[in-house]
Design goal:
- Helices cover about 70% and strands about 5% of the residues.
- By secondary structure, the chain is mainly alpha-helical.
- Strand 3 and strand 4 form a beta hairpin.
């Protein structure tokens, strides 16, 4: 959709809607690792602005709290404390910077050789389907509320016209929330206790720097970097633009790395590209980077207004889960489209082997570990796909 024709009001509404989509995951990570959710919101907004600055404002990506670091942060905190662990997260940015330099040096042909469509397609599918468990777990806390939100979003997306058609997600959340309030299933105690204005960041985190957690986090960052590449391909497929060529993967990695560094300095979790927002873009057909920047500005505003942030946190998990049931499946479908558009031959045994092994390992929960190093899920599947693509002989074409 050509967003140039949208008014500022419409762009703002859609931008806020995109933040609603990312909100649950963004604040869930800090809650699980024991830091202030407002900090995560602030660093997500700031990190997104940094990313857009580095990528020349061309890539419609929202950065939020990374789930990949939940277990490592919890484990590291037991050894070095939370302040030391958060300071050690500066290592994540180092990995991004090194990979960015490598891609810049080798160029796009290097990426095309390492990540052809037969590898990228399954990665995109896994990015959607690997999140399906989270969606179901959130939805099953109250299936009725989840289905109310889901059905509302589907009805709005299918039958509405004009402005309403642009906001199926926020419509589902609002209707689900109203029903939850009517059923007395919303806890407002957090809203009552929250202050109107809150300080969302803590500037002294970096003073707790230690080498041990820094070195511990370096291998952990490999998987999110690989997922980053897949996400850029996803966004490109949704927006129908080649962001790998312009502004380039080296710039998107550099932007993500700078965002992670800023977050570490401010006591927030590492940032990552958010598939939830990509799914929302795929549904609404709105892929304007300007709209994403409105989402980032909204996140910063919410982080400062304590009452508003608490009100958003009162949205039942089931309502958000109902919406995620639609969004994550949409991401997976983009992966299928990627395979079809690039004419990946599914009669080719080589392609079938690569795709099958990647999907099975990614969805089956395979883990490869050695000492403190561990890689699993999408990251492990991507590595396996890359290796298989490089070692399996090409099928000879019959003349």
């Amino acid at each position: 959709m050509n967003t140039e024709n949208l008014s500022l009001v419409k762009k703002t509404v859609v931008g806020v809607q995109f933040l609603f989509v990312a909100f649950g995951a963004t604040v869930l990570v800090p809650l699980l690792i024991g830091i202030d959710p407002a900090t995560a919101l602030f660093t997500a907004g700031l990190g997104t602005f940094i990313f857009h600055f580095v990528t020349k404002g061309k890539v419609p990506i929202f950065l939020g709290s990374s789930f990949a670091f939940i277990a490592p942060i919890i484990a590291a905190t037991k050894q070095w404390g939370l302040p030391g662990t958060l300071a050690g997260l500066t290592a994540v940015s180092l990995v991004y910077f090194v990979m960015s330099a490598l891609v810049k040096w080798q160029g796009k042909r290097f990426l095309d050789r390492i990540f052809p469509p037969v590898v990228i397609g399954p990665v995109i599918i896994l990015i959607g389907l690997s999140l399906s468990g989270s969606a179901v777990n959130m939805a099953k806390t109250d299936w009725m509320l989840a289905f109310v939100a889901l059905i509302t979003a589907i009805v709005v997306l299918t039958f509405s016209r004009g402005m309403l058609k642009l906001v199926p997600i926020i419509s589902g959340i609002l209707v689900g929330y109203v029903v939850a309030v009517a059923m007395n299933k919303v806890d407002f105690s957090g809203v009552a206790a929250a202050s109107w204005i809150a300080m969302p960041v803590h500037f002294d985190t970096i003073t707790h720097f230690q080498w041990a957690p820094f070195l511990y986090m370096i291998p952990v960052a490999i998987a999110p970097v690989l997922e980053h590449i897949g996400d850029v391909y996803v966004v490109g497929a949704v927006a129908k633009k080649d962001f790998v060529a312009d502004p380039g993967i080296h710039r998107t990695m550099l932007g993500d790395g700078c965002a992670c560094l800023a977050s570490a300095f401010l006591g927030g979790p590492p940032e990552t590209t958010y598939s939830e927002v990509t799914g929302a873009m795929s549904i609404t057909k709105i892929t304007s980077p300007a709209v994403i920047r409105i989402s980032a500005a909204t996140a910063i505003c919410f982080s400062v207004v304590g009452k508003l942030s608490a009100l958003l946190q009162s949205i039942p998990q089931a309502v958000l889960g109902g919406i995620m049931l639609l969004l994550f499946g949409t991401i997976a479908s983009v992966g299928v489209q990627n395979l079809m558009q690039n004419k990946v031959d599914m009669n080719d045994t080589r392609n079938v082997i690569i795709i099958s092994v990647m999907l099975t390992m990614g969805l089956g929960g395979a883990v490869l570990s050695s000492g403190s190093f561990a890689i699993s899920g999408i990251g492990l599947s991507a590595v396996v796909g890359v290796v298989l693509n490089l070692v399996l002989p090409k099928t000879k074409k019959v003349a």
